[in-house]
Write a structure and sequence with these properties.
229 residues; mainly alpha; 7 helices; 79% helix; 0% strand
């Protein structure tokens, strides 16, 4: 619990870097540049992995080092994204006269942002509540639940990507007054979602047991009465 608390403290303390990156990435996507944020994020992930190996594997710094590596990589991604935006798009340079109150714009941003934030938060809140309830059932159930959640998160990723894509796509075309293109994009995204749903059903009912089966399954492990099978 102590290490978990320390980890969360560092992660929450560095949320400003995460927010800064997502804000800049959203600006780039809103003007049609979707590749650059992805490339910067990939570099950030690679850097994070390298720092984990360095801090934990080589230097043995523990859990807090993993959190520090995450925050450091996110800070670098935000900085790189800012530099790219500053050099590539001078039109986005903020001037003193850009800072003024626009209540209508603030309301629109809060309405869209809070609704999307609440939607994502409900899923995470439900996961936390479920995990707290499952923790009382013992090691076997906890491990099984974690394995299933990892697999579920992998399967849900395309849906999350589709949602983010459609939010950007719709806002761009709505701002351009092209409602017909919004309808076409929605139709295509629904087709993609339906196809992926069918594939997920086939994979889940056909191969899920093998996907969550750990190496050496069926052999007794040195963990009390816990059985991997």
């Amino acid at each position: 619990m102590g290490e978990g608390s320390d980890y969360l403290t560092i992660i929450v303390g560095g949320l400003i870097f995460t927010a800064f990156y997502h804000m800049l990435a959203a600006v780039l996507r809103s003007i049609g540049d979707t590749i650059t944020p992805l490339c910067i994020l990939i570099l950030s992930v690679c850097f994070n992995v390298l720092l984990d190996f360095l801090f934990i594997g080589k230097m043995g710094m523990g859990v807090c080092a993993a959190a520090a590596a995450t925050i450091l990589s996110q800070g670098i991604s935000a900085f790189v994204c800012f530099l790219y935006l500053w050099k590539k798009y001078p039109i986005l340079h903020l001037q003193k006269e850009d800072f003024f109150w626009n209540l209508n714009l603030i309301q629109e941003l809060l309405a869209g942002g809070c609704s999307m934030g609440l939607m994502n938060s409900l899923i995470m809140i439900g996961s936390v509540v479920l995990q707290s309830a499952i923790n009382g059932f013992g090691t076997t159930i906890i491990v099984a639940h974690i394995a299933a959640r990892r697999l579920s998160s992998l399967f849900m990723t395309p849906y999350i990507v589709l949602g983010t894509t459609m939010a950007t796509f719709t806002s761009q075309n709505y701002g351009a007054g092209d409602g017909q293109r919004v309808k076409e994009g929605l139709k295509i995204s629904m087709i993609y979602g339906a196809v992926w749903s069918v594939l997920v059903l086939l994979i889940t009912y056909g191969f899920a047991a093998g996907l969550v089966k750990p190496p050496g399954a069926g052999r007794q492990k040195d963990s009390g009465s816990f059985q991997w099978n």
